[in-house]
Specification:
With about 425 residues, the chain is mainly β. It is built from 3 helices and 19 strands. It has helices at about 5-20, 165-175, 360-365; strands spanning about 30-35, 40-55, 70, 85-95, 100-110, 115-125, 140-150, 150-160, 205-210, 220-225, 245-255, 260-275, 280-295, 300-310, 330-345, 345-355, 370-385, 390-400, 405-420. β1 and β2 (about 40-55) form a beta hairpin. The relative contact order is 0.17.
Length: about 425
Amino acid sequence: MFSKTKRPLGRALLAASCAATFVSVPARAEIVLVEKDGWSVSTNGRANGFYSYEFGDYQPTGGTPGEGGIVSTPFQAAPDDAEQTKFSVSRVHSGFVGSIFGLTVKKQITPTLHALAHMELWWPIETDQFRGYSSMVPDPRESYVRVEGSWGSLQAGRALGLHDRGATLTDFFYANGYSIGGPCNAILQGPLCGNIGYGYQFPGYNASINYSTPKFAGLQLTVGAYDPSKVGYGGSELLRLPVPRIESEATFDTVGSGYKFSAYVNGMWQEAGGDVMGEPKMIHAYGVGYGARVEVSGFKLGVGGNYDIGGGDFSALVGPVPIDSASKLRRTDGYFGQAMYSIGPVDLAAGAGVTRIMETKEDILSEKSVIKTRLGMNLTFNYHLEPVVFNAQLFRAKHDYWRGEHQNLTFIHTGMTFVW
C-alpha cells in the first residue's frame, strides 16, 4: 500500500514520467511557407483533444506487504471511497502525441550538401485539477541542427533517443498515433503514455550529438553521445557522470511490390557512480531493443522486445525502479505485438505488451514489493477525414507485484486530431 507519507513522492515521480512521455512525430506532412535562393521554411504540427473515462483499483491491493513497501511508479487518481480501493474519473486529455507547432529552416549549400534547423513546441490541453485552471507552458521538446550529405548526416541538439526508438515508432504507427493508450495518471497533465511500460521502455528526449551513415541497400547505422542521466532516486542516487551515455541503432528498410518491411536493433550504455554507505560505487547500465514491422496491402504488424540492466517500469535509468537500495541495477525485459488493418479511411488495431522487472537479493531481504509485471492490451478504431482523424480506444492494464499485490485499470478514450 502507499502510505500518506509516500504519496508526494509518487506525485513527483509521475510528474517526471509524464514530462518524459511525449513521442516524436515520425511522419510529418510539412507545409512549405517560403522557398528562395536555396532557403526554405516549412511548418508541421497537430492539435487534438480526447474524452477519457478511467476506472479501476486506486492502489495495489492484496499480497503480503513488507516493511520495505511498494516500489513502482504509481498510477495517480482520487479514490471513490474512504477505504481508498477504487477510482473513477472523467478527463479531457491531450493524446499520446500532444499539441505541436514545428518549424524547419533548410539551406541547400551545394547540390549534395544541405543543413537544417528544426524546432518543435509541445503543450498539453488539460487544466490542473488541483486548481481548476492552468497556464499551458510550451515545452521545447525538439530542437536540433543537422548537416546532411553523401557521407551521411551529423546532428546536434535534442530529439528522441535511439534506445527503444523503434518500439516507440511501432506504437505510434499501429496503436496510439491518434489516441492515448495508457494515460500515465488520472489527475495530472499530459501528453500521455501510449504503450510505454507495456512491452518497451521510453527512449526519452535527450541532448545528443549523433552521426548516421548513408543508407546502403536499406541498411543504416546511427550512433550518438548523450547527456547522461543520474541513476536512482532519494538516498540511492548515483550522481557522478564522467562520460556521456552512448546509444546506437541499426535499421533496415525495404519496399517491394505491395509490401514494406523494417527491422531494427538498438542499444544503450551508461556509467554512473557515487558513494553508497561510505564506499565508492560505480555501475554500468546497458540495454538492447529489437523488433520489426511489416505491411502487406492493408495489413500491418509490428513486434519487438527489449532487455535492460538498469531498466524501469516506464523508462531505463529514471525513477525508483532501475536501482535498489544497495545500488544494484534491476533487470527488465519486455515483449509486445501490435497489428492494424486499414481499409479505406478506417484503421482497426489491436495489440498487447508486457514489461517484467526482476527483484534483487536486497529487495527480498528488505521485504520490498517491486512491481513484477505490467500487462497492457488495446483495441483501437480510427476514421480518417483528412486532415482530421477520429478515434475510439479501449485500453486494459494489469499490474502485479512480487509480494502478491495487484492493480487492474481500464481506460476508454474517444477524440480527434488535426494534423498538418
